[in-house]
Automatic annotation (TrEMBL):
It holds the Pfam family Trans_reg_C. The keyword Cell inner membrane does not apply. This is Transcriptional regulator. Keywords: DNA-binding. It comes from the Bacteria. Residues 6-104 bind DNA. Residues 6-104 form the OmpR/PhoB-type domain. The keyword Nucleotide-binding does not apply. Transmembrane segments: none annotated. It comes from Labrys miyagiensis.
Length: 929
């Protein structure tokens, strides 16, 4: 073991500087991991002797439970680093059943004139406290701090109260004790509030007995040639004195290392800072198992401390949601988690999770002999708060109004007051970060700030007590209104994406602002403008249900009040209509909202809202399957858009006209319109996207996927689908992807006969309550297609009838005990696009049911289907019908007409020869030739 002198071990071309934790080969550094270096020091110090596995594990992994497999792994890595396998005589040998031995000749070199050469001995014994419990979740931090202390001689562990700074410092010092020859000293400055007493505390711990007029000089002189580690713990209240002492020690001594714990950094030269972060918490995730939850350090600590105080506690899968919520609400702060664990026996997990809304009253029973400020969560925060200047306290109170991350710009829009200018508020923010009261994330383009939840609640209480909360809430709401009103019109532009990256997480602040605005003491005018302005953000974040509910609540709250004039109600009704559409609400509610919006827009001549309302009325008719009426509204929309000269509205008009013509069976017109939308949309990028809509490129490519298949171009349809999927992926919007997969991906896969691809697309759809009917509808049809002949025929009957007004009813069949065979029904309502297939399947159902008149009844349906498919130029439907009719003729002995009909139809295909329909028809032709 080192004896306090700076010892160098030499073997072969290597030099091992144990005290500095450095290995060199031929004068050049050798990179080793922390554990491998510890292992090498242990073996070299005992060169020629066998060190047992148990002793190695105790010395290298002190306080950490590992198996011998880990030891073998690190020995292997160490041998590789030493190129041990290239030598005739290995450096490290394994003595079977006993342990490991460093077998090479080692020379110990003591460097004169370095620490310890003055022969002075320490008057006091090392006093590092003994840890009563194993440290949880900080192994990496111990290694990082140890590494920093090997690179420099002053390291500060900084972090908020209760984060575990002292625990980490003691564990690190414990791990480094051998490197300092046991010369590790712990100075607890928690009781010291007078800066003049800092030196006295250090002198007392080190046992310096000499008297000197300058105590700083006396301490430095005592330490000048000694190698030791001093831990200065809990320094924030005497930070200036500690900074002066640490700076002087590092400058004027050779081997003394200083490890500081503080909520604030020292800000002196050569200081290395280790910011201690909260323990990692389990995410808010459904169906998380107890085993998975225990992989998170915060949960490990919570379970460990709960079990220690409540012996019967066992974490199972059912308890995970409540336990994980507790860890998240407490931000992974070890002190708060320990305080919470102490209350589990009394409240139970669920009660404790609910009670955290009043966490300061709940978390009040700490360890009996802990520091007073660690007895309760409030006491810990009181300690930090009282160390702040008045301006820092005021700024902390102001930023407590934020619910999530915020920028400096946002903070400066909230906190300035009579005594708070932008300049001193900025300084105060910087100081709050330095004092670990505020966290800063500088990984993005703009620095984002955040208060830990416990700190936010504490500071919010102070804000309420100050009487400034109403005005602060007003500024907070007004700021978010201006922020959203200034957002780019298009989320998919570069500017829009940048805005979303920076501000999308503000939705919790928007919620809080709206809650205040619509309270009895709030500002209704700001609230109404904010709910309208933020509607696009709610939709982008796929929060349409919540948006719908908030708009409806706003209309009820504001009814009869002067703030709700015609223009404001118009905008609210339009926003409500869009929310109803995307939340799959009843068509009559949708139509009422848009009719009211249109009436109000007509009164004031508000063309943009007139266009929105016409779109909504078209959507309502579409939802009811009334496409002839929808076509008239779409034409009115297109006319108004042309008259207004609104290019974005013109493009949307083309979209809805194309979709309506497609549903009505006018595939040629639908294709022309959709291709035009696709060309213009791609040329203009995303600059012409309309509010609340899926992007033009996505919808046009989706529509063309369907049309191209119907017209007999399956390969082109597949290519177009991939383009639609790529555009949806780029949009990073769940509804866009859902739209593509449900309206093109699943249908095309089924049409092509690729059931595995259909399942893949189903798996990619997000299971949202508002959209679940589509997922369940296609999943049900796919299940039928994968079953027997009868079920496959039922699927064929249902598939062409899938529409907005039928999907819910079809999906509901999935839960039926038995599924009846649908009765032949030629009424396809206005959805004429699939009528050829409806007629064909009806004929197949008649033939399957059998009977003397089945063939006679089926043939007219097939002939009508064939004529309709030809009239619509839907070659794919025509092929299916020709195949069914040819098979019927073949069974009736009309072999040549059957073959000729099928051959003439197949010959018109220029692609898609390996698809199920074309390949099957060609097989029949070959059999009948």
């Amino acid at each position: 073991m080192p004896d306090g002198r700076l010892t160098t071990f030499a073997f072969g071309p290597f030099r091992l500087f144990a005290a500095e934790r450095r290995l060199e080969k031929d004068g050049k550094p050798v990179r080793l991991g922390s554990r491998a270096l510890d292992l090498l020091i242990v073996l070299v110090e005992s060169a020629g002797e066998v060190v047992s596995n148990h002793d190695i594990l105790e010395r290298v992994w002190r306080g950490v439970t590992v198996d011998e497999g880990s030891l073998r792994f690190h020995v292997k890595n160490l041998r590789r680093a030493l190129a041990d396998n290239l030598r005739d005589t290995p450096y490290i040998t394994n003595v079977s059943g006993r342990g490991y031995c460093f077998a090479a000749r080692v020379e110990r070199l003591d460097r004169e004139g370095m620490p310890g050469s003055n022969g002075a001995s320490l008057a006091a014994a090392p006093n590092l406290p003994i840890r009563g419990r194993a440290i949880v979740g900080r192994t990496n931090n111990i290694e990082l701090v140890s590494r920093e202390l090997s690179r420099g001689r002053l390291v500060t562990i900084a972090g908020p109260g209760g984060i575990g700074k002292t625990t980490l410092a003691i564990a690190t010092a414990e791990a480094l004790r051998p490197s300092f020859g046991n010369a590790v000293f712990f100075v607890d400055l928690a009781p010291v509030e007078d800066a003049a007493l800092v030196l006295s505390a250090v002198v007392s711990v080190l046992g310096i007995v000499r008297s000197d007029d300058e105590p700083m000089a006396a301490v430095v002189e005592f330490l000048r040639n000694r190698r030791l580690l001093i831990v200065l713990d809990n320094c924030e209240q005497v930070i200036e004195a500690v900074a002066a002492l640490a700076d002087r020690i590092v400058r004027d001594t050779i081997g003394t290392h200083v490890l500081v714990t503080s909520r604030e950094t020292l800000r002196v030269e050569d200081e290395r800072v280790h910011r201690l972060m909260p323990l990692e918490c389990p995410p808010d995730k459904d169906d998380m198992s107890a085993e998975e939850a225990m992989s998170y350090a915060a949960m490990q600590l919570f379970v460990d401390r709960t079990t220690a105080g409540f012996g019967g506690f066992v974490l199972d899968d059912a308890l995970v949601p409540a336990a994980a919520e507790i860890c998240r609400r407490l931000d992974g702060i070890p002190l708060a988690i320990e305080l919470a664990a102490a209350r589990v026996e009394f409240f139970g997990l669920s009660g404790l999770a609910r009670g955290l809304n009043d966490m300061f009253a709940l978390l009040t029973r700490g360890r009996r002999f802990a520091l007073p400020r660690h007895q309760t969560l409030r006491a810990a925060l009181d300690w930090s708060y009282h160390l702040l200047s008045p301006i820092e306290q005021a700024v902390l109170q102001g930023i407590a109004i934020f619910r999530t991350t915020f920028t400096l710009e946002s903070a400066l829009a909230i906190v300035p007051g009579p005594a708070t200018t932008a300049d001193n508020a900025t300084d105060a923010m910087a100081n709050l970060v330095a004092k670990s009261m505020l966290t800063a994330d500088s990984t993005g383009d703009v620095v984002q700030y955040r208060l830990l939840e416990s700190t936010r609640i504490y500071a919010s209480e102070k804000l309420t007590a100050s009487g400034d909360k109403p005005e602060t809430a007003r500024r907070h709401a007004d700021h978010h209104l201006k922020l959203i009103e200034a957002a780019p019109a298009d989320w998919e532009s570069d500017a829009g994406k940048a805005w979303l990256r920076l501000h999308a997480g503000r939705i919790d602040d928007v919620r809080a602002a709206l809650d205040w605005c619509f309270s009895n003491t709030g500002d209704l005018s700001i609230g109404l403008r904010l709910i309208v302005a933020s509607a696009r953000l709610w939709f982008q974040l796929s929060l349409t249900l919540e948006c719908r509910d908030r708009v409806e609540a706003a209309l009820r709250f504001a009814l009869g009040r002067p703030e709700l004039d015609g223009a404001m109600e118009m905008r609210l009704q339009a926003a409500l209509g869009h929310a109803l559409w995307y939340s799959a609400s009843e068509a009559d509610r949708l139509e009422r909202a848009f009719r009211r919006a249109l009436a109000l827009a007509d009164e004031v001549g508000e063309v943009p809202v007139q266009l929105q309302a016409l779109w909504g009325l078209w959507a309502a008719r579409r939802a009811l399957g009334r496409y002839r009426e929808a076509l008239a509204i779409a034409e009115n929309y297109a006319t108004l858009a042309e008259k207004a000269g609104d290019e974005a509205a013109r493009l949307l008009g083309g979209r809805i006209l194309g979709l309506t013509h497609h549903q009505l069976g006018n595939q040629g017109t639908a294709r022309d319109l959709s291709e035009q939308v696709l060309r213009v949309g791609r040329r203009a990028g995303n600059t012409l996207n309309s509010e609340f809509q899926v992007g033009h490129e996505i919808t046009a490519a989706t529509m063309l996927t369907r049309i191209l298949w119907l017209q007999g171009f399956p390969d082109q349809a597949t290519t177009m689908l991939q383009q639609a999927i790529a555009a949806a992926e780029q949009s990073d919007h769940w509804y866009s992807m859902y739209y593509v997969l449900c309206f093109a991906g699943c249908p095309l896969s089924l049409w092509l006969g690729n059931l595995a691809q259909a399942q893949h697309y189903l798996d990619r759809t997000v299971n949202r309550a508002a959209a679940d009917r589509w997922r369940r509808c296609w999943a049900f049809i796919l299940r039928l297609r994968q079953s027997g002949e009868r079920e496959a025929l039922i699927a064929s009957s249902l598939e062409p009838r899938v529409d907005l007004n039928t999907a819910q009813e079809i999906a509901a069949l999935a839960s039926a005990a038995t599924i009846p065979m649908p009765q032949p029904d030629d009424d396809g309502s206005d959805a004429l696009w699939s009528l050829p297939e409806v007629l064909r399947v009806n004929a197949e159902v008649l033939l399957w049911q059998g009977g003397p008149d089945a063939a006679a009844a089926a043939e007219p349906k097939l002939l009508r289907s064939l004529d309709l498919a030809r009239a619509q130029s839907t070659l794919s439907w025509e092929l299916r019908t020709a195949t069914s009719l040819a098979r019927l003729w073949y069974r009736n002995g009309r072999i040549a007409p059957a073959r000729d009909l099928l051959a003439a139809t197949c010959d018109r295909f220029s692609e898609g020869f390996d698809t199920a329909d074309v390949a099957g028809a060609r097989q029949f032709i070959a059999q009948w030739s």
